[in-house]
Amino acid sequence: MPRSQRNDNFTDKTFTILADISLQILPTTKREREASTYHRDGMSAQSEGEYAEALRSYYKAMRLEVDSYDRSYILHNIGLTHTSNGKHARALEYHFQAPERNSFPPQAFNNTAVICHHRGEQAIHQGNLDISEAWFDQAAEYWKQAIAPSPGNYIEAQNWLKITGRSSLFN
């Protein structure tokens, strides 16, 4: 039984049932169904903190998934998993790949901004103010891309942009 079908809570069970029904109703190939199952298994493992298992499932999903839009979300989740493991450089590699397949993934831009911001803070602690400013400028650029499609999201990022005077940067 796929991991995603072993969920304990009502919301996860409901989502799994709806996803399974959708896969049965919609015209999908066996390969697409398998890719979807691995992706869901990865999300389930990731939510439980089982990052190695999540990555294994995501990589299996990537080998099977052919739709570039769906691949962008798998790449995004791989990036999130690497971030959770503290592997920020590796996470950025995957977050950078997501927009190449889906030109408008605000969450990938947001997560890239969060990592850039984190690196800016690390540079401050190391006494590298010029480097920190460069990282913060990068964070600002990515947050603007995340905010543009839905200005009601990422309020903390919007406040940070205003407070730091970066709200007009890169416009």
UniProtKB/TrEMBL annotation:
Regarding the membrane, this protein is recorded as: Peripheral membrane protein
Compartment(s)? Plastid, Chloroplast thylakoid membrane
Does the keyword Transmembrane helix belong to this entry? no
- So where does this one cross the membrane? none
Please list the residue ranges covered by the TPR repeats: 35-68, 35-68, 72-105, 120-153
| Example GO biological process | photosynthesis
**What SUPFAM superfamilies does the annotation carry?**
TPR-like
Q: What is its main location?
A: plastid
Entry GO terms, CC = chloroplast thylakoid membrane
Q: What does this protein do?
A: Seems to be required for the assembly of the photosystem I complex.
NCBIfam families xrefs: PRK02603.1 (NF002725)
Family, according to the entry, reads as follows: Belongs to the Ycf3 family.
Protein name per Swiss-Prot or TrEMBL: Photosystem I assembly protein Ycf3
The species this protein belongs to is: Deparia lancea
**Corresponding gene?**
ycf3
